[in-house]
Amino acid sequence: MPPAKHSAPAAAANTANQQAVNHQAATQRLLLVSGVVDFGLGALKVLVGIVANSHALIADGIHSFSDLATDIMVWFFNRIGAMEPDADHPYGHARFETFGTLILGTLLIVVAGVLIYDSVDRLMNINVQQLPAWPALAAALGSILIKEWLYRITVQLGTASRSKLLLANAWHHRSDALSSVIVLVGVGGAMLGFSWLEMLAAIGVAFMIAQIGWKLARQSVEELVDTAMAEPYVQEIQKSIEDVEGVRGVHSLRTRRMGPDVLADIHLQVNPAISVSEGHHIGEWVTRALLEEYTDLTDVIVHIDAEDDELLEPRDKFSIAPLRREIRTVLTAVWDEALSAEDIHKMTLHYLNNRVDVELHLDQQRYTDRVTATNLQTQLTKLTTHLPWVNRITVWYG
Question: What stretches of the chain adopt beta strand conformation (E)?
C-alpha cells in the first residue's frame, strides 16, 4: 500500500488543526470589531434619539448595547470552546460553545418579547407619541447598513468554522438590523402621519426574531442531551462501514454532536474465527474510511464483536461464561482420566451466544490412530455435558 495513503489521516488532521487555529484568530478579530461597532452604534442611536425625539431609535440603541454584551459573551464562550481537552474534559470544551448558543437563542426570544411588549404599549398610546425629526432616519439607515454588513461577515466565518455560536451571534446582528428597519419605517410613517406603521412592523419582526431564537435554543438543547444525528446521515455512515472488507455487520451505531464535531460509537461484527489483531485492523480501516469521507466526523470509537450482541438473549452476572483460567482449571479436572493437561499445546476459546467453543491442539505424535483421535473428541464432549457454558469441543493435532 502506498505510504501516502497511510499518512493521509495525519495530514488531514494537521490541516484541520491549522484551519481551526486560523478560524479562532479570525473569530477573535471579528468579535473585537463587532464590539467596537455595537458600542458606537448604541451610543449614536441613543444620542440621536434624544435629540430627534425618537423613542424607537432610543430603544434600538439599547438593543445595540445588548449586542455588545452578546459580543462579550460570544468571545468568552468561543475561547473556552477552543481549549484543548484536559483531565476534567477529555472530549474537549465544545459543549461550552453549545451552552453559549443556548443563552443567545434565549436572549433573542427575550428581545423579541420586549419588542412586542413595547410596540403594543406604544400602539395603545399612539395619540401621545411625539413626532420624530429627520436625523432619526439617517441614524436608522446607517445602522441597517452596518449591522447587515456585520451579519454577512459573521455568517461567512461561522459557516467556515462550523460554529453555531457565531451563527447565532450573526442572527443577533440581523435582529438589530431588522429593528433599525422598524425604526426607519416607523419614523418615516410618523413623519407622514402613519405612526402606527412602526408598531405593526415591530410586532412582525419581533415574531421573526423569536422564531430564530427558538430554533437556536432547540438545536442547542438537542445537542446538550446527546440527540442522534438525522437518520439519513446515520444510514450513509452505516453504508460506508459495510463497504469495508471484513465487516459482517453493523449494530448499536450511535452518533451525537459536540459543537461543530460529530462523534460516533460503532459495534462491528466480524468473523469470530479471525485473530484479535485482524479484527482490530478492520476497525482501524473503518475509522480511517469514515474520517476521510466525513469532515465533521472527528471521533470514532469502534467495538469489535464476534456476533450481533443486540440479538442475544439478556444475560445476568450468573449466566455469563467464565474466563480462560477458570475454564482451563475446570476442563482439565473433568478430563483428568481421559487427557493429560501436559498434552494440551494450545487451547483456543470462542465466546458465542453466551457459550464457549473450545479448540484443543494436541501432540500429533501421541495421537496417530485416527479412530483413537475421533473417540477422544467424543469422550471429551460427553465429559462436559453438565457444563452449561460449553457449546462444542473440537480437537486438532499438530
Answer: 249-258, 261-269, 297-305, 344-352, 355-362, 390-397
